[in-house]
Amino acid sequence: MTNAERQRLFVANQRAAGNIRKSYWLTIPQSKKVDDFVKMMKNDTLFMHADTLMSVKDSLFTAKDSIRFKIIKAFHRVKIYKPDFQAKCDSLVYTLLDSTFELHGNPVLWSGKNQISSKFIKAITKKNEIKELRLFNNSLIASISDSIRFDQIRGRNMIVLIDSSKLKRIEVRENSSAIYFVKEQKKDAKVLTGVYKVTSADMNILMGQEDVEDIWFYKNPKGTLYPPFTLKEEELKFHDFTWKKEHRPSNRNDIFVWISEEKNTDKTGRITHDLNTEEEAEKAKKEREQLENKKIDR
Predict the structure, then answer these.
(1) How is 30-58 classified by DSSP, letter by letter?
(2) What are the residue boundaries of the structural domains of the chain, listed by start?
């Protein structure tokens, strides 16, 4: 076990024992206030922007030792960009000691072709990569199946294991359901052969290289395989699912552009748009392009 792994285990045990307490706050002064946070990582850099950022010093005390570490707190219109994942939420807490992210306020996280959302997300990283996600309340994972279809998994809570930025295993707990587009390889292309809709209390999903490899259903599973093109469009997705492509940062400059999901919510003067109209969507796109063309020295 490496020193970093020992420290991570130590921190986890002390958190469980309730031995962490706040020692004091350090709020960034107004004159030196910054609007973005940059963390240098092994192969990539993480960029984060929010309306308000605070650096907080925390302490962990035990009978024999004490550790001081920093916490980054971000409030309102938080966006993150890293090549292998991106995210948006209302507020965020990042603990540098054990490299955990806590995303609050209807967070959405993207990794590869996956969109992950819930009321609260805890991301656990190791060696500068996300290894585990814990989703709480109204959890939903959607993956691009093709240009117009999305595989979807939902449940009350989930645990997602990730390896090399790819979903490897998904454990869904309580009120589980899924919509999955079944395809077969024919010559050089995959052909849609059916739509599988299933519900159960719990389910475990093992992912292959690109698609679902195995699914285990627990407690009263009920599923139906429908022939292709027989279901209506609204039956091919959950009622609260929306693919939020326009909200996903495509590069580090996009963290400075916030697109509102509600009408008439801009009262701060920040870049905020209502995508209920094509005109505002086009305006948001142009401003993103302007930021991309502008060199930002961080």
Answers:
(1) GGG--SEEEEE-SS-EEEEE-SEEEEEEE
(2) 3-256, 257-298
Give the CA count within 13 Å in the CB-facing half-sphere of 244: 25
CA-CA distance, 133 to 115, in Å (whole number)?
A: 12
Name residue 145's amino acid: S
Q: Is the overall model pTM greater than 0.90, yes or no? A: no
Residue 110 has pLDDT above 70, yes or no: yes
Which tens digits make up the pLDDT trace of 144-153? 888 788 989 9
Higher pLDDT, 135 or 35: 135
Distance from C-alpha of 123 to C-alpha of 94, rounded to nearest angstrom? 9
Other Cβ atoms less than 10 A from the Cβ of 216: the count is 12
**Phi, psi dihedrals of residue 15, rounded to the nearest 5°:** -60, -45
DSSP codes of every residue in 212-271 = EEEEEEESS-EEEEEPTT-S-GGGGS-TT----GGGS-SSGGGGG---BSSTT---SSSS
The CATH code for residues 3-256 is 2.60.450.10
- Give the number of other Cβ atoms within 10 Å of residue 288's Cβ: 20
**DSSP helix, strand, coil percent of the chain (3-state; round to 5):** 15, 50, 35
Whether the CB-CB separation of 256 and 263 falls below 8 Å is answered with no
pLDDT tens-digit readout, 254-272: 998 888 876 444 444 444 4
Q: How far is CA 171 from CA 155, 174, 184, in A?
A: 9, 10, 25
What digits encode the pLDDT tens for the residues 13-67?
655 555 444 333 333 333 234 445 565 444 568 888 888 888 877 666 555 666 6
Which residue is it, tokens 């294991």?
161
- In angstroms, rounded to a whole number, what is the distance separating the alpha carbons of residues 242 and 182? 21
